[in-house]
Amino acid sequence: MTTLTQTLADFAVQTRFEDLPQPVVHEAKRLLLDTIGCALGAIETTSGKIALEYVSMLGGTPHATVVGSDRRSSARAAAYANARLANVLDADDTFPTSTHFGNATVFSALALAELDKRSGRDLLGAIAVGFDVGARIGSWMGAPMQIENGKVIGWNELGGPAATITWAAIGASTHIARLDGRQANHAFGIGGSNSPQPTLRKWAESIEQPMYKYADAGWCAEIGVSSALLARLGSTGFKHILDGENAFWKFYGSPTHDDHALLAGLGTDWQILNTTYKPWPCCRWIHHPLTAFAQLLDQHALRPDEITRVVVRANPFALTPIFREQHPRDLLSAEFSHAHALAALAHGIPAGPRWYAAATMDDPRIAAFRERVTVVPEPSSSNIAEWMTGGQWRGVPGGVDIHARGTIFSATADNAIGDPWTGATRFTDEQITRKFGVMVGLDVNGDGGDELRRAARDVADVVMSLDELPVERLTASLDALSRSMRAQGVEA
């Protein structure tokens, strides 16, 4: 009998680009462009500068591109820096197991694509396959809470989403490194046993966030790259890490698992089509109230100085102290503050690194608006288990009540902008491209200097044509864009 581990490992290495449906290829391109933009948007943040300086200190054979830098580094170090950068602003895509792993999927694959001189098709295939592996592992381990008879009865002491970032990187890396089934099995064992600790509960209780949230996406990407390279050299790992009484789900701390969710529709139901994109650089759980808030601002032409109070109605995940914080002290903490997100949106701050620039964080208008925001539970999402399908969320309601002009304007959003499951919320190619432009220093209209605009447009065009191009064409356009950003003095 083929084990769960071997079945998933065989999928990772035997799937070819020709096996991918056209919508999956297109989504891999969209994810690639969005993730690159998120990384470039973070290069002038404190955390981003640390990542770049750290990789510079490491040195290494210049095999791979370090986004935003004029230096190349080893595949392992480049994967680290780029994936960490992509997660810094919390603007990267979110899969409905409440996990970000597009960052490690994209940049572990890109680093090895450069090392082994793969094609654009190889890179896109690795992104689709790696994303599927991460998504399936997350769905397999289920939600970070305990559910009985359809109701939430408590929160897990261990488990959580961090390990899925590593598994996505492992899947992408084993695919693009062209391992055979035996080597991939060992790569799974090597990487799975070196996954990050389950720190979700510690993260949830911390108002002041560490720079890597609940796991450093860079290390997760690095684990994927190292696992594939070690296995290709002949190193071994646990052969049955997903199987048996002491399988990964158990020693990682998840109270349960769902083997059906792990393998159902493998190779036909592509999970990358279920990822969500972020129009705003903050936690995805804030996006449902933000969607309702944006709709009301637009519908009623509300100005921030007219708003005397905003009551945010949030789902159970977004009610912990960090989400209620009105005066976040740094970028990472502000990314989880309902009050800061609403203040930035109300004042028209471009949705990118400028949300967390010192000029925004210290703006007295922003601080005053944050004081007027309170957070309460959203009644229709009180039982979050009702909104789950196969270990994933397809929508969790959130809303706002805006007090202005002597009345109350109210709205609730079951789906947030960027959710792919409704036509009204699905992020279009144009929206992804516009977001990419803002991340690299253009304004919302795509203006910001001819050179920068041309360089950004070239990267977007290359990504969308990557199935017909070598990976070197992508990295050359990235280098040109990075130079243009530096010349333009783009800052967070």
UniProtKB/TrEMBL annotation:
Domain MmgE/PrpD N-terminal: residue ranges: 6-254
GO function term, MF aspect, one: lyase activity
Domain MmgE/PrpD C-terminal: 280-438
Family: Belongs to the PrpD family.
Protein name, per record: 2-methylcitrate dehydratase PrpD
Native organism: Paraburkholderia hospita
Lineage: Bacteria, Pseudomonadati, Pseudomonadota, Betaproteobacteria, Burkholderiales
